Amino acid sequence: MGSDLINVGINMDKLTLPHMLSFMIRGFFIVAALSAFVFLLLGALAWVTSSGEKELVKKAQDKIQAAVVGLLVIVAVLAIMVTLETVVFRGTICVGLTCPPSIPSLLEPEKDQHYEFKVDSAMVGKGTCVVNDLGAFKSKEECCSANTGLTTNCP
């Protein structure tokens, strides 16, 4: 007897915070849209069963109007989020609506940069302090002060 597994499409090895947030955001929009649609149907049903009574017809119309406004708000928010993901952030920050979820880590320390003095071959005695991971200087200011009078890019 072999092992019969059913693939449900959830890869637990890659379950991260951005993926969970993406799942929750998509779920929220699905539940909100379904709720607005059900509310719309309930309003239509109330209108049909109102028997022409003005007060019941007015309540049914208000229910339908609220459902349509809710659907419009959902569509507007989705459009704004898609625009933010694709145009503003260009996929660097993505909640998973148009691209795989990616949220850059704000707590990750920046990599230390080192500087070196690079001599300009066209001008004798001139050069610049440039970023080089193997450079001897830990800051541009340190590089500039060590090469006073020789650099062109130091204040």
- Derived structural class: mainly alpha
Number of continuous helical runs: 3
Query: What Rg do the Cα atoms give?
Result: 30 Å
What is the beta-strand fraction? 5-15%
Query: H/E element string?
Result: HHEEH
Explain this structure.
It is a single chain. β1 (115-119) and β2 form a beta hairpin. The model has no long low-confidence stretch (mean pLDDT 76). The chain has 2 domains: 15-88; 109-155. The longest helix has 35 residues, at 54-88. The chain is mainly alpha-helical and 155 residues long. The chain starts with 16 loop residues before the first helix and ends in a 9-residue tail after the last helix. It has 3 helices and 2 strands; from the N terminus they run ααββα. Helices cover 48% and strands 6% of the residues. It has a two-stranded antiparallel ribbon with strand order 1-2. α1 packs antiparallel against α2 (54-88). It is rod-shaped, with a radius of gyration of 30 Å.
